[in-house]
Amino acid sequence: MTIECLPLILKAKGNILNISTVGASHRGPNLSMYLGAKAAVENFTRCWALELVKDGVRVNCISPGAIETNIWNVTDLSEEEAKKHKESMEKVIPMGRFGTPEEVANVALFLVSNEASYVTGSIYAVDGGAGAP
């Protein structure tokens, strides 16, 4: 999609904001294709940032951790199992909770704003510190 939209982005001197996952740098079993694709998104972000900076286009990426969305309600787990799984995940997040969609949106708004005019090629973790250890 970025390649298809690139002529418009270049003309507008816009921003590209990619979405990855904290898992791109903190691997897990049974997620090889998903995490491999997200690692590629982060590498595209860095490469495109270098390639497009001369054209006035900034490229950044958000790498969310566990975010409280409806995806957690679409599992094969029972309600009790889902609750236990969520609680076990919260124990390994330094902030002790899932993030909110609004917290991710706030970082997105910053990255595409003029306040971030000197930011390009960055991967911003929005993960409650999960990627810090």
Name the helix and strand elements from N-terminus to C-terminus, one letter apiece. Answer: HEHEHHE
Overall morphology: elongated
Low-confidence segments: none
CATH superfamily: NAD(P)-binding Rossmann-like Domain
Percent helix range: 40-55%
Overall pLDDT metric: 92
Kindly give the count of domains.
1
CATH class equals Alpha Beta
Task: Quickly give the CATH architecture.
Answer: 3-Layer(aba) Sandwich
Put simply, the count of helices is 4
| Proportion of strand residues | 5-15%
Strand order of the largest sheet: 1-2-3
CATH topological fold name: Rossmann fold
Count of beta strands:
3
The assigned structural class equals alpha/beta
| Computed CA radius of gyration, to the nearest angstrom | 17 Å
Distance, first to last CA: 34 Å
**Sheet with most strands:** 3 strands, parallel
Entry keywords:
133 residues; alpha/beta; single chain; 3-stranded parallel sheet; 43% helix; Rossmann fold
Can you walk through the features of this model?
The protein is of the alpha/beta class and 133 residues long. It has a single domain, classed as Rossmann fold. It has helices spanning 2-12, 32-52, 79-92, 101-111; strands at 15-19, 58-64, 123-126. It has a 3-stranded parallel beta sheet, sandwiched between helices. Strand 1 (15-19), helix 2 and strand 2 form a beta-alpha-beta unit. It is elongated and about 50 Å long. The mean pLDDT is 92.
